[in-house]
Amino acid sequence: MNRRNWLRTTSVPAFALLGEMLRLPRARANDPSTSQANALPGFGQAKSVIIVFANGGQSQLESWDPKPDAPTEIRGAFGAIPTSVPGTIISDRLPQLAKLADRYSIIRTLSHEDLDHGSAFYLAMTGTYHQRLSSNPPARPTDHPFFGSVLKRVRPTQKFVHTSVMVNGPAQVPFEIGPGQFGGLLGKDFDPMIVGDVTTGRPPVPGLTPIATLDGYRRSGRAELLSHLEASASQAGTEFSSPMFDMQALYRQAFDMLDRPEACEAFNLDGEPAALRDRYGRHRSGQACLLARRLVEAGTPLVTVVWNHSNRGQDRFSDDEEFGWDTHNDIFQVMGKHLLPKFDQSFSALLEDLDTRGLLDETLVVCMGEFGRAPLVALEPNFDGATPGRKHWAATYSIVLAGAGVIPGSVIGKSDRHAGYPVSKKFGPWDVTATIAHALGIDPASHFKDLAGRPYAISSGSPITELYSV
């Protein structure tokens, strides 16, 4: 019996059985009422989600989990300050966020096993380990899709043009485009809309400025002409390549944007008062946070702010607008002078602004990175810089969540005395994606299907219910 005959006689029954197993009664993502998920606290309380992604690995010791009683080589050069929540301390370089501690919750026991930026970034964006653990793989069309792409697949928005928007992106690790932030196996049509630097003075989305001589009728004619050309190519037997299909998706999105002036207006930062723009900070990540608030206000379900677009620090850049959180050396100079003051200003402004406008109750805000930093200060000879820093560390690190029913002022999980390992229940990036889905009213145990109809779990994790019932 050759291989073809063997497959014909054995595979069909086997795959039929597999198909039946995959069709076992589990809730559909767009019908959460068929599952028990809606009985858990926090389910469906978010209309939108904002992810502020600390690209490069934000140090837990210099931010959300300082250890003031640890030895100097563990503690580092910064101190700790009390917050508005009695008993909770954070870094002394985050004074504005310390005042707002009663509006967010800290999780101090995120943990996983990936120790390099590319694959750990993939894990954070998808909730799934990359096949090449602790590596820097390129983005591939066969990648697991970004959570925002999954969201578009199971619940595309009708209120805004795009279900998912990435601001100050795409994320680089450090110079190559990181995997896991695109549609992957779902295709280019499910990529998030990516907006780059919004501080250039040019429109954040080029081409949206109305042309006086191009009215709706003429624009509709152009769209119709394009459709005829594509149909003619298909009838003539022209083989459409993947880039051609990708371009069609981009054309559709562009025409949708032009036909909806309210969508174009959402990107107009000049419509904000100067004082508020100053409050957020007139730098790339600060204005990206402000744009995130505008997009949520316009009805975008998921906005990701990349802080910063490259994960590397001063060892590769001289302009602090380029500094990411990968602080192998000179960590205290870079974080103390450049990263933390801007982060404190902008992230606190985002929380305040959402709260003032009544949006925080219906918006889940998540601040996270791909991992944390090592609980040992040391000079790394393979990196530029004259003073010590911290290596990659994924055994435990911190994230922050706020809004959409999250109990404010809580601290979930406890790390050891060096902020190196969890001493209480730990959580993974898969639980974060499950929590995001849960907050949006999607059962994370349900499935989405790829373009060939194959099912994939929304998330392999579980919602972090401690956020809602501390």
| Structural shape | globular
Termini separation comes to 62 Å
What is the assembly state of the chains in this entry? single chain
Q: Percent helix among the residues?
A: 25-40%
Question: Could you give the order of strands across the largest sheet?
Answer: 6-5-7-1-8-11-4-12
Low-confidence stretches: 4-30
CATH homologous superfamily designation: Alkaline Phosphatase, subunit A
- Rg: 23 Å
Q: Care to count the β-strands?
A: 14
Number of discrete helical segments: 12
**Biggest sheet architecture:** 8 strands, mixed
In short:
This protein is an alpha/beta fold and 470 residues long. The protein has helices spanning 3-22, 72-75, 95-99, 117-126, 147-154, 216-235, 242-258, 261-266, 274-280, 284-297, 331-356, 429-439, and strands at 48-54, 80-82, 89-91, 105-110, 164-167, 193-195, 302-307, 363-369, 372-373, 392-393, 397-402, 411-412, 447-449, 455-457. Mean pLDDT is 88; it is low at 4-30.
Task: Give a topology summary.
Elements: H1 3-22, E1 48-54, H2 72-75, E2 80-82, E3 89-91, H3 95-99, E4 105-110, H4 117-126, H5 147-154, E5 164-167, E6 193-195, H6 216-235, H7 242-258, H8 261-266, H9 274-280, H10 284-297, E7 302-307, H11 331-356, E8 363-369, E9 372-373, E10 392-393, E11 397-402, E12 411-412, H12 429-439, E13 447-449, E14 455-457
Parallel strand pairs: 1-7, 1-8, 4-12, 5-6, 5-7
Antiparallel strand pairs: 2-3, 4-11, 8-11, 9-10, 13-14
